[in-house]
Design a protein that fits this description.
Blueprint (H helix, E strand, L loop, with lengths): L12 H18 L5 E6 H11 L5 E7 L5 H9 L3 H6 L6 E4 L2 E4 H10 L5 H10 L4 E6 L7 H11 L3 E7 L10 H19 L13 H18 L4 H15 L6 H14 L7 E5 L5 H16 L8 E7 L2 H21 L10 E7 L13 E7 L8 H11 E12 L6 H10 L3 H22 L8 H10 L3 E8 L4 E7 L19 E3 L1
Parallel strand pairs: 1-2, 2-5, 5-6, 7-8, 7-10, 8-9, 10-11
Antiparallel strand pairs: 3-4, 9-14, 11-13, 12-13
Helix pairs in contact: 1-2, 6-7, 11-12, 12-13, 15-16
């Protein structure tokens, strides 16, 4: 279940149940007489327990890190008791619920009405379950307290065939591929023992990694075809996204990400040329300017040359916002630091309106550093764009890029944000950050966006011409930051005019 039709904004747990039963019907028609096993994870596990309880066609139910108390899980993830607030008349409209932006009022009302909302409803379903159950729970599950799982285990009684504790695992198993593989191997072994008890040490045939990768690409291609986004729609999507993205700058995790990028770019005090592709609202440019101010204040000699900073984006409103942000920050720094620090510009910015899915409007070997922050996963052909970045990067120049991990859990960023929020407006900022992450998660599910694991990212960087890429976890462990260099020998710096984009330029 995962390619259901319809608008996700209208999704409910009842709809999930209908989808699951539709799959059971399909399996019964396609393989009559074969034993049927339902494997469900997380929230789908809660739905499966209710859906399968009266259904005698299913012979085994396998629950992997299931949610057993929706109210408690919502509280753990969102740090708010949304169900209680709903019962007291508070209405939210469209908001992020466990990663996806949906009609929260419709979803919460359905959960209460149809008996999904609390632990007691789960215990009732467990007591009525007539199907053997195998349970896998994660030792470090922040969404599901272990004491609640144990109460559901007690309610299952003799129907609980086996229970496994996955050591050091989190709620989302895919964050650790080795643990995921071990769970699936054990899951298959349990199914064989359940239906073929006389077999001894069954051989488990694991598909080759290449076959799995091909299947993943096929499914992504099919999803992408169902959710194609025209260029005008994409422009509107990113305009709206970036209009709310400025809240992220107040997040400690995001500042740590920017600092990680800054340190990997290396020392820049000799007038280096820095290209920021997909600059958005200019967050990295502002971080760069602040650090240059502090470096200049602490330097014994004020002889560093201002950096040439070229910001590129295809959303006009974002470029205008970036330009305004840098101008305002420059004024603040002039007021804060001694005049000697600001005797010359810290950075010399210019802005270029360009689509990263097309050839870049710059000459070969033009930039000493290139930063590509949380961008490549949203491009039509990431390898094409990376090769363009390598083309305009000077020999021995450095490329630093970041990309979300596959199925990243940005609710952790939200919870970290809430821990330091003190005012109501700061809590609202945190909600906006979470809602923004829901838009990205939905795009990933629809195949429009693609995020790469560590190996895939390394292969991309080598394929585009990079040398010995280094890849690290960052952004609350939900993204990768990678750095690589362009091989070759240094050349004479270009003339001042060649630093400008060839077209579509807005001067600061």
């Amino acid at each position: 279940v995962g390619e259901s039709e319809g608008d996700i904004h209208q999704s409910t747990l009842s709809h999930m149940k209908e989808d699951l039963l539709a799959v059971v019907n399909y399996a019964e028609r396609s393989w009559p007489g074969s034993p049927m096993v339902v494997v469900a994870t997380s929230l789908a596990g809660r739905v499966a327990l209710k859906a399968i309880t009266p259904d005698h066609r299913v012979k085994l139910l396998v629950l992997v890190t299931p949610v057993v108390d929706v109210q408690t899980t919502l509280l753990a993830v969102h740090q708010e008791d949304h169900l209680d607030k709903y019962l007291h008349g508070n209405r939210k409209g469209i908001m992020n619920v466990l990663g996806f932006n949906i009609d929260a009022d419709r979803w919460l009302g359905d959960a209460i009405r149809e008996g999904y909302s609390d632990l007691q409803s789960t215990i009732r379903d467990a007591e009525q379950c007539n199907v053997p159950v195998i349970l896998f729970t994660a030792e470090n599950d922040a969404w599901v307290p272990m004491e609640l799982v144990m109460k559901v285990q007690a309610a299952l009684g003799s129907r609980l065939r086996t229970s496994y504790l996955i050591p050091e695992a989190l709620h989302r198993l895919q964050e650790n591929p080795r643990k995921t593989q071990a769970v699936f191997r054990q899951l298959i072994t349990c199914c064989v023992k359940e239906f073929y008890p006389l077999s001894h040490d069954p051989d488990i045939a694991e598909p080759p990694p290449r076959e799995v990768a091909l299947q993943n690409r096929l499914e992504l291609k099919r999803a992408r075809a169902q959710h194609q986004m025209a260029k005008t729609d994409a422009l509107e999507f990113w305009r709206d996204y970036l209009a709310h993205f400025h809240y992220i700058v107040n997040s400690f995790d995001y500042w740590h990400l920017l600092d990680h990028i800054y340190r990997l770019t290396g020392t820049c005090d000799r007038g280096e040329r820095i290209l920021d592709v997909g600059c958005g609202n200019g967050n990295f440019g502002m971080f760069l300017m602040i650090n240059q101010a502090y470096r200049r204040r602490s330097a014994q000699r004020i002889d560093s040359k201002p950096l040439s900073y070229i910001a590129v984006d295809f959303v006009p409103s974002a470029l205008l916002k970036a330009r305004l942000n840098l101008m305002n920050l420059a004024e603040e720094l002039r007021a804060k630091f001694p005049a000697v620090v600001m005797t010359r510009d810290l950075i010399r910015p210019c802005f270029s309106l360009a689509d990263l899915n097309l050839p870049l409007p710059f000459h070969d070997d033009q930039f000493d550093r290139i930063v590509c922050n949380l961008v490549i996963g949203y491009l039509q052909d990431p390898l094409f764009t990376l090769r363009e970045l390598m083309r305009v990067l000077s020999p021995n120049g450095r490329l630093v890029l970041t990309n979300l991990k596959p199925r990243a859990d940005l609710s952790q960023i939200y919870r970290n944000f809430l821990q330091i929020a003190k005012q109501p407006e700061e809590v609202e900022e945190a909600r906006q950050v979470l809602n923004n992450s829901g838009k990205i998660k939905q795009g990933e599910s629809n195949g429009i966006f693609r995020f790469f694991d560590r190996n895939e990212l390394g292969v991309l960087l080598v394929a585009c011409g990079g040398v010995q890429p280094r890849i690290y976890s960052t952004f609350g462990n939900q993204a990768y930051v990678a750095v690589t260099e362009k091989p070759g020998t240094m050349h004479a710096p270009p003339t001042k005019s060649s630093l400008l984009p060839q077209k579509r330029t807005l001067e600061a």
